[in-house]
Amino acid sequence: MTIAFPEPQAAVLAKRDAIIAGLQAIVPGEGVITALDERRAFETDALTSYRRVPMVVVLPETTEQVSAILKLCNREGVPVVARGAGTSLAGGAIPQEDAVVLGIAKMNRVLETNFADRTMRVQSGITNLAISGEVAHEGFFYAPDPSSQLACTIAGNVAMNSGGAHCLKYGVTANNILGLKLVTIEGEIVEIGGAALDSPGYDLIGLMVGSEGQLGVVTEVTVRILRQAEGARPVLFGFDEIGQAGRTVADIIGAGIIPVAIEYMDREAIAICEAFAHAGYPLDVEAMLIIEVEGSEAEMEAMLARIVEIARAHQVKVIKESKSAIETAAIWKGRKSAFGATGRVADYICMDGTIPTGRLPEVLAGIDRIVKGYGLRVANVFHAGDGNLHPLVMFNVNDPAEQVKAEHAGEDILRLCVEVGGCLTGEHGVGIEKRDLMREQFSDTDLLQQTRIKSALDPQWLLNPAKVFPLDAPKEAASSTPAKAAA
Amino acid sequence: MTLHTPSTAAELAAIVADARATRSPLAISGGGTRAGLGRPVQAAASLSTTKLTGITLYEPAELVIAARAGTPLAQVVETLAQRGQRLPFEPMDHRGLFGTAGEPTVGGVAAANVSGPARINLGAARDSMIGLKFVNGRGEDIKTGGRVMKNVTGLDLTKTLAGSHGTLAVFHEVCFKVSPLAEREATLVIEGLSDALAIEALSAALGSPFEPTAAAHLPAFDGARARTLLRIEGFGPMITYRTGELAKLLKRFGALETLGEAESGPLWQAVRDAAFVAAGTDPVWRISVAPSKGAAVGTKLAALGGRYFYDWGGGLIWAAVPASGDASAAAIHALAKAAGGHATLVRAPDAVRLSVDVFDPPAAPLMTLQRKLKASFDPDGILNPGHMYAGL
Ligand SMILES: Cc1cc2nc3c(=O)[nH]c(=O)nc-3n(C[C@H](O)[C@H](O)[C@H](O)COP(=O)(O)OP(=O)(O)OC[C@H]3O[C@@H](n4cnc5c(N)ncnc54)[C@H](O)[C@@H]3O)c2cc1C
Ligand SMILES: Cc1cc2nc3c(=O)[nH]c(=O)nc-3n(C[C@H](O)[C@H](O)[C@H](O)COP(=O)(O)OP(=O)(O)OC[C@H]3O[C@@H](n4cnc5c(N)ncnc54)[C@H](O)[C@@H]3O)c2cc1C
C-alpha cells in the first residue's frame, strides 16, 4: 500500500447535501446514487488493492446532463472522476472520498453507422465489443481489441489509448478515432473532428486520446470501422530458449512481414493458461509465440510458410498451425484468459511497460532477477511485435508485506524498461499506479509542459485528480501566462 | 532580416529564449522551401533547422527511425529503402505545386503533417510519429513520446504537435514508426465513370477485404477520359488474387485494366504530389470531407470553374480554382462545411492568404481550446505568429 491519496477536502464534504440536490435536479430518479452500499460498487477498478468510496455517483444519459453536472462541480470546486466500466488496471477510475463519480455506462447507444464512409458514431459508454458486434453482419469490425473488450467502454479506451493483440497491424485507439464530442470542466460542449479524415487546427483528438480523463469528459466518439479479412489463422511456436523466440520475431519483421499479432508467453504463463484453457500449449518450452496472419487461404498459406521457415532457422522446437476455427479459438482463448487464469493461481499485479524489442532477452533476464530478488514469482505475457510487456508479479494478498514487495518489484521492472529506452506504460495508462514513477521518464521541464496544458483546460485541477502526474509535479497557474487566451 | 541556424538543441533553445525575452517573433523554416505555405508570417528574424541534421537512430527490426529535424526527407527515404522499408504515410513532395527548389525536411513534414495516398490504410504522418524533441515558445527543451511504438505515458504531445505548422514548438528531432516496402504493386483502372459512380466503386473496394492501399479518381478534364484508380500492394500471388477478386466485385462499374509497376509508381506519385492541379498559378485548395459527400462537393467545384481530383476514396479533394479576389475562399469554405468537412488554401499569393482564412476557423468552443493550447506552449506568440490563424 504505497500509493498516497490526497486528504479529502472538508469544505467539499460539508457541501455534500447541496451537491446531491444539485445533481438530482439534473439527473432525476435512480441516476444519482447516494447510499453507501451502492456507492461501494464504484470504490475501485481493476487495481483492486486500492479503494475509496466516492461522495456520490451520478449516471447521466445525455451530453447536456454531463455539461450541467460539470458546470455544477466546477462552480462548487468538487473533484469529478469520469468512469466507464471500471476495468482500468492502473487505478485510473479509482475515486476519492470528496469526488463525484460520473459514470457514462448508460450512454451506450449507436448513433449512426455509415458503411460507405466506414465510420460509426457512438455514445461513449458503449462497450468495445458491442461496436464490432453492431457491424459484424456486414463483415466489419472496430480494430483495437483490448482483452477486456467485453466489458470496457470506448470512453475508457479513448482515455487510456488502449491497445490489444491485433494493434501491430491496425494501430491503437489513437489511430482509429475520427471524432469526439467532449465536455470541458466549464460545461462547454466541444465537437472535434467527425467523419472526415482530418479536422482543422491543432490535433486535439491526438491530445485527448490517452489523456486519462484529465482534460474533459468524452460523450460521443466517431470511430473508423474496417472490413474483416477473409480469414485469420494463428501458428504457435515453442522454443527452448528465449533468444531464439526474440530473433524469430526480429527476422519476421526484418523480412517485411507484418503479421496481425505476435504474442509471447514464457514457461510460467504457458503453464497457467494451459491449465485453465486447455488450448494445447506445449509445456516443455521456455518461450512460446502465437503469430497470426490474415487474408485468403492461399495468402495465409504463403505467409505462414515464410514465417515457419524463419522459425526453423532459429531451432523452433514445436510448431502448431491451426487447422480449424475451433483450434484457432482455443489458441486465442489461452492467451486472452492470461489475466483471469493467473488470478486463479495467485494474486498478482499486472505491469505494463514497453521496451525496444531488440533488448528483449536482456530485459526478461532482468525481470527474472528483480522478481527473484524479492522472493516472488512472475509470469510474462506480452505483445512481442511492439515490445509491450505484461509481467504478472504474483503475491499473496493476505500478506501485506508481500504486497509491498510485489509493488516494489513492479516499479523496478518499469525502471528497467525506461533504462533500456522504453516507457512506463504501453497501453494501461499511468493512473495512480505509475504516477510517482513519471520522473523516471520525464524531466521536470517535460512534465511542466504537460501540466501547463492541464492547467489551461482545467484550472482548478478538478478532473480526475491525483492521477497521471506526481502529486508534487511542477505546476503553474493558468493565469500566470501573460498572453492568457481570450475565451 | 536575421537568420538563425542553430546546430544544437541548446543553441536552438537559447535563440528562442532570447527572442521571447525581447518579444521578437521568429519565422520557422525547415528546408526553406516554404514559399506560399500557410498565412505569411511577419517576423523580423527567422530560424532555420538546416544545420540540425543527421539520422540519430535506425533499428530496422524494430521498425523505428529517428532523425534531427533539418535532415532532408530524401536521406531518410533512401536510408529506409536500402533495408526494404519506407515511411508508411508516403509524404508528398510539394515542390511541383509551389514551384520551389529546396529540400523538404523531416521537421517540415512533421510540422505540416504531410501525408499521401497510403493514408487510407496506413494513416497520416501523425499516425507514424512516436516521439518528438522540441523547443517551445519559452525556449524550453522538451521531449515527448519516445522510440517505442506503444507508449501511453502522460499526455501525447507528439500527436498534438503534428501539423502545428511551427506555431507551438520548433522540433529538433522526430522519431517515426516505419513499415516494410511492398514487394510489388499494381494499379487497377476503370475508365469513364462519373464522380458519383467512381466514389461508389472506391467505397465498395475500400470496404472489401482486399485492402487497396490507395484510391483515387481523376475526373475527365481536357477531353481525357475519367480514370478511377486502386492500388494493390504485396507479394506476387497476392496481387494476382486480389486483382481478380476486385474485378469481380466491381464488375457492374465496368472493365478493370491492370497497370504494372512501371506505370503504377509514377501515377501514385502524381496523386501524392497533387500534380493534376499543380500546373499554372491558380489558387489550390485541399478539401477534406467524408467520402460519401465527395461527389456533391465535386459538382460544386466544377460550377466554380475548378479542376479537381479525388484522393483517398473521395475523402480528400484537391482543387485548382480560377484566380479571383478571395481565391473563392468564401464559397469553398462554405461548401466544405456544408459537407461536414473543411478546406485549406494551399496555394495563393501572399496578399490573398493574408486576407482570407487559409485554414477553416474551427467553431468557437474549439477555437477557445486551440488558443489555450497555444498559450500553454508559446504564451508570447514568438513562434510563427499568425501562420495558421490571424492573431494566434
Ligand atoms: C482482464 C483485463 C484485461 C485487459 N486487457 C487490456 C488490453 O489488452 N489492452 C489494454 O489496453 N487494456 C487492457 N485492460 C485495461 C482496461 O480494460 C482499459 O484501460 C480500458 O480502456 C478501460 O476502459 P473502462 O471503460 O473500463 O474505463 P475505466 O476503467 O472506467 O476508466 C479508465 C480511465 O478512463 C477515464 N474515463 C472513463 N470514462 C471517461 C469519459 N467519458 N471521458 C473521459 N475520461 C473517461 C477514467 O477517468 C479513467 O482514467 C484490461 C483490463 C482487464 C481488467
Ligand atoms: C496549408 C498547407 C497545407 C498543406 N497541405 C499539404 C498536404 O496536404 N500534403 C502535403 O504533402 N503537403 C502539404 N503542405 C506542404 C508541406 O508543408 C511541405 O511539403 C513540407 O512542409 C516541406 O518541408 P520543408 O522542410 O520545406 O518545410 P518548410 O517549408 O520549411 O516548413 C513547413 C512548415 O513547417 C514548419 N517547420 C519547419 N521545420 C520545423 C521544425 N523543425 N519545427 C517546427 N516547425 C517547423 C514551418 O514553420 C512551416 O510552417 C501543406 C502546406 C500548407 C501550408
From TrEMBL, chain A:
Its cofactor is FAD. One of its GO terms (molecular function) is FAD binding. The keyword Oxidoreductase applies. Residues 50-228 form the FAD-binding PCMH-type domain. Keywords: FAD, Flavoprotein, Oxidoreductase. It comes from the Bacteria. Gene3D superfamilies: 3.30.465.10, 3.30.70.2740, Vanillyl-alcohol Oxidase, Chain A, domain 4. InterPro entries: FAD-bd_oxidored_4_C (IPR004113), FAD-bd_PCMH (IPR016166), FAD-bd_PCMH-like_sf (IPR036318), FAD-bd_PCMH_sub2 (IPR016169), FAD-linked_Oxase-like_C (IPR016164), FAD-linked_OxidoTrans_Type4 (IPR051914), Oxid_FAD_bind_N (IPR006094), Vanillyl_alc_oxidase_C-sub2 (IPR016171). Signal peptide: none annotated. This is FAD-binding protein. It comes from Phreatobacter aquaticus.
Automatic annotation (TrEMBL), chain B:
SUPFAM superfamilies: FAD-binding/transporter-associated domain-like, FAD-linked oxidases, C-terminal domain. Residues 1-181 form the FAD-binding PCMH-type domain. It comes from the Bacteria. Keywords: FAD, Flavoprotein. One of its GO terms (molecular function) is FAD binding. This is FAD-binding protein. The lineage of its organism: Bacteria, Pseudomonadati, Pseudomonadota, Alphaproteobacteria, Hyphomicrobiales. It comes from Phreatobacter aquaticus.
